[in-house]
Amino acid sequence: MNKPLEGEPLVILHVEDDEAQAELVKRSLAQNRVRNRVLNVYDGEEALDYFFHRGKYSDKLKSPKPHLILLDIRLPKIDGLEVLKQLKTNDSTKKIPIVILTSSAQEEDLAKAYEYHVNSYVVKPFDYENLLSLMHDLGFYWLSWNNLPWVIRAENDRNYEQSVKITKGT
Amino acid sequence: MEKVVLLVEDSEDDIKLTQMAFKENNIANKMVVLNDGEEAVEYLFCQGKYRERDINDQPTIILLDIKLPKLSGLEVLKKIRADNRTKYIPTVMLTSSTEEEDMIEGYKGGCNSYVCKPVEYEQFSQAVKQLELYWVLNNRTPNKRIEEE
């Protein structure tokens, strides 16, 4: 019941302004036992646009609700902690697990993140080996063991199927 | 600082299995096991027989069963989240309940994660190991405990 459906990758949205870092995380996650598809947005404003269907994300089908959000703190335009706060206070997004993935272990950031109901806070290691092992644990935990209410899962799956159909249809 | 895992669980079998899986994991941590919701509240808030306990000395992670005697897991979660001294402690609902309603209530109540206990031993053991690995080694929490207002 908590296992991903056969052949259907789970969607992870990664909010990170450093493209090289984003690529590394995507590559580490690709080696996970749980099939997944990582989508990237590059600043806080884009992240909020994605969820609240504004600007270039006005088409809901092109921005499926992810099963997991990985969120950096230091982001251009809108800070990651502000993004977290907004997502966790909105009924349509508050149940999506959010993991802060950052290089900052500052006490103040940690306290704020928990204050805003982060699900988990993880500090990125500097070397690739450790990042790989961290992303393995993280991906496996959140995509496999953690359970989401069906309402989210069903909506995600439906959106994903539709977005695939649209991509194939063009 | 010693990292403590708090398990609130009333099923003897599940406690034994969880303890075994923890031992196999070999991450040196202390596990405190409590059998009902009332005792969990007394432990966390240093009341009753736990009044001598240091309130700053809180678990790294709480694994909380939903169906508990005396006070349900969801009630315990509510108390954890409502108090400044405990509200930042990561709490995972670890349960055999797959009822949609429980899950929604768990997320509404502010649990960090919701894991259904697999029925089969191998799977159960693997779930517990992953849980410990993730929450004890990878997840970070603030060091400072917020004082009671």
Give a brief description.
The complex is a heterodimer of chains A (170) and B (149). With 170 residues, chain A is an alpha/beta fold. In chain A, 46% of the residues lie in helices and 15% in strands.
Per DSSP E runs of 2 or more residues, the count of β-strands of chain A stands at 5
How much strand of chain A? 5-15%
Shape call of chain A: globular
Alpha plus pi helix count of chain B: 5
Amino- and carboxy-terminal Cα gap of chain A: 33 Å
Q: What about the largest sheet of chain A?
A: 5 strands, parallel
- Secondary-structure-based class of chain A equals alpha/beta
**Top CATH class of chain A:** Alpha Beta
Mean pLDDT of chain A: 86
What letter string, H or E per element, gives the SSE order of chain B?
EHEHEHEHEH
Number of domains of chain A: 1
Termini separation of chain B = 25 Å
Strand order of the largest sheet of chain A: 2-1-3-4-5
Features:
heterodimer; A: about 170 residues; alpha/beta; Rossmann fold; globular; B: about 150 residues; 5 strands; about 40% helix; about 15% strand
Structural summary, described in words:
The complex is a heterodimer of chains A (170) and B (149). Chain A is of the alpha/beta class and 170 residues long. Chain A contains six helices and five strands. Chain A has a five-stranded parallel β-sheet, sandwiched between helices. The N terminus of chain A is likely disordered. By secondary structure, chain B is α/β, with parallel strands linked by helices. Chain B has one domain: 3-Layer(aba) Sandwich (Rossmann fold), CATH 3.40.50.2300. Chain B contains five helices and five strands. The mean pLDDT of chain B is 89. The chains are: A alpha/beta (170), B alpha/beta (149). The interface between A and B is medium-sized, with 31 and 29 residues.
